[in-house]
């Protein structure tokens, strides 16, 4: 199982709404994430907007590609794009760059 961690930056003026949206993620989005291999997926948000994402998957690239092929993901990413800083026209799910794991206590 591959462990993946990534960072994004949520706009400070949108933090409350971002939290609200993630308190009520669409059921079809949750189903799509599970069906495409996203497991143990968590998002952590700091008060300055730093977003830390963590997930486990067999193959991150394949999981991303499978999600990108779903209609629900296209709709979700379109709605979420304005919440983030510095995407430069990239969808949020395309801006996730995994951090290099340097330690893991098994």
TrEMBL record:
Entry-linked InterPro entries: Dimeric_a/b-barrel, Rham/fucose_mutarotase
One GO molecular-function entry: racemase and epimerase activity, acting on carbohydrates and derivatives
Pfam families linked to this entry: rhaM
GO biological process, one term: rhamnose catabolic process
PANTHER family to which the protein is assigned, alphabetical: L-RHAMNOSE MUTAROTASE
Protein name per Swiss-Prot or TrEMBL: L-rhamnose mutarotase
Species assigned in the record: Actinacidiphila glaucinigra
């Amino acid at each position: 199982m591959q462990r993946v961690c990534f960072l994004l930056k949520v706009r400070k003026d949108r933090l409350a709404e971002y939290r609200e949206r993630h308190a009520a993620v669409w059921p079809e989005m949750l189903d799509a994430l599970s069906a495409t291999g996203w497991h143990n997926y968590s998002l952590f948000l700091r008060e300055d907007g730093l977003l830390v994402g963590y997930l486990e998957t067999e193959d991150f690239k394949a999981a991303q590609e499978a999600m990108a092929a779903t209609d629900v993901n296209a709709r979700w990413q379109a709605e979420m794009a304005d919440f983030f800083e510095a995407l430069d026209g990239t969808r949020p799910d395309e801006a996730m760059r995994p951090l290099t794991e340097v330690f893991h206590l098994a």
